[in-house]
Amino acid sequence: MPELYRLPRPTDRPPAVDPVIKVTDVTRDYPRPRTSLLKRAEVVHALRGVSLEVQPGERFGIVGESGCGKSTLLRIIAALDRPTSGRVVVDGTDITRLPERRLRFLRENLQLVFQDPMSSLDPRMRVRDIIAEPLVVQGHPASGARVRELLDAVGLSADAGDRYPHQFSGGQRQRISIARALAPNPKILVADEPVSALDVSVRAQVLNLISDLVDELDLTLVFVSHDLSVVKHVCDRVAVMHAGEIVETGTTGEVYAAPRHPYTRRLVAAIPTIPKALAGATPEDLLTPPKGAPR
Fold this sequence. Notes:
The structure is a single chain. This protein is 33% helix and 22% strand. By secondary structure, it is of the alpha/beta class. The longest helix is centred in the C-terminal third of the chain and has 18 residues, at 200-217.
């Protein structure tokens, strides 16, 4: 893979020893619509006292089933949502209550890759304009050379910039999303289920691309997935979420080989293998605990 030129970072600092992301006792509650004048509105506790730290240059995975709070946590880390309580520090700055006008540093240093590459790309824009958009918004030169460089870095030809998103496959569209995220030269790349919408045949290609780019550009990666085997492929350390809480944290090797929490053990058991397939077991069967087992 050719070396990718890195834009100068206006907020470059000396090498950090503190976590680049620190989440402390974060909760997030969402009130449901009232269904009765006589009853209070129910509250959904999406996050329940979540704490974690991500070190500079680390590949940190967050894994759990749908509805466990993974995406809510990512939105709070990216300052797209506010916690009900708790504290979030990114790159040394407490962003918990910062107004949008003071979050420019975060918009430059933290970029996201979303789950669905089709809905995250504007169908009316050409690819070259999609990739250049973060540069334009943040005041960087949006040169054609930079766009071509990014396309080359994600394995697409230069003429792809003249086409529209619907003219690409799902895997190619996700490559475009990755190129757009890398355009402003962030320090932190946040990937929210980036391969779950892709065919199995192209998942490994996109995962390998993300892994190579994280190494080449010295990025900190926060990678969210419901699939522990996918997280194991790209992450050094993993936090397991269940019902809005982190129930286990450790290196991916430790969590994969010797899970401690019952929920983590069920996640590991749900990873497809040839013996399980031959036995006719499904992931849904395996995620359902035996009667009387701890939940």
